[in-house]
Amino acid sequence: MAEGDDLFPGFEPLWIEGPAGRWFGRAGGAPEAPPLLLLHGFPQSHAMWHRLAPALAATHRVIALDLKGYGWSAAPASRDGENAYAKRRLGAEIVAVMERLGHVRFALAGHDRGGRVGYRLALDAPERIARLALLDIVPTDVQWERIAAKPGANPHWPFLARPAPEPEEVIRRDPDGYFEGLLRDWSAAHDLSAFDPRALTLYRQAWAVPERIHAMCEDYRAGGAEGPDRAADRDDLAAGRTLPMPVLVLASEAYLDRDKPETALAAWRRTFAPKAEGASIASGHFMAEEAPEATLRALQDFLAA
Questions:
Q1: Whole-structure pTM over 0.85, yes or no?
Q2: Superfamily of structural domain 5-304
Q3: Residue limits of the AB hydrolase-1 domain (predicted)?
Q4: Is 112 a catalytic residue?
């Protein structure tokens, strides 16, 4: 048994050749069932879905991918985020990966950075996405508006987006200390109790690799205040583009919607998803691991509608 297999009983490991290197993922559920793509967030990997994926596979063909630069997927070199980690490019690459698995149209649930890839893909290629669930994010442009209005909020955003190699060098001195500090800070309990030790082992293995530290910083540079992700948001907002598919917004009570000027659902309805539905999850940022029952129930209800 390969490391992590026991987190996903009945799932098969996948190595998929993509346009910019190999992607790793796991697939479970009947091959003929409706496809559902799960995309994880920072600083994690596909392992964050282990408490939800087996149940979701009862009704769907579930594919949980490691994003490029994370987990076991390729981590190509990049500069200023644009060469490899702009969400528009990542979305196009994921379309190619899903086609190679035989899925032209699919539902998508994305947490954190995975949600950013998901909504960009859905705006650029709406015909590909049947349903879109966004877990604990607001649009990138809205996020930077919030940071500008409250300097010091979400300090990891401007820190990780700083020019290379400054953040990389800081993190490499103690990657476990840095990343585990974020897991604690963003969890409702402010400790690591919500995380399965097996999943933590996989997270630590990935974030200890210098190339992956660089990739995560490039991810944030692409989403920087002047980066291509925000520019794409602004272009679409100016053009009045919205998401035509059903959209679910899940927001954590103890992280995203705590002490904010507007709820995540209100932010999405004001921008890209005027008809979105939403639910609040009593958890910190890592709702799939902190509150798996409530998160699963919300996703199942949305996917079955």
A1: yes
A2: Alpha/Beta hydrolase fold, catalytic domain (3.40.50.1820)
A3: 34-290
A4: yes
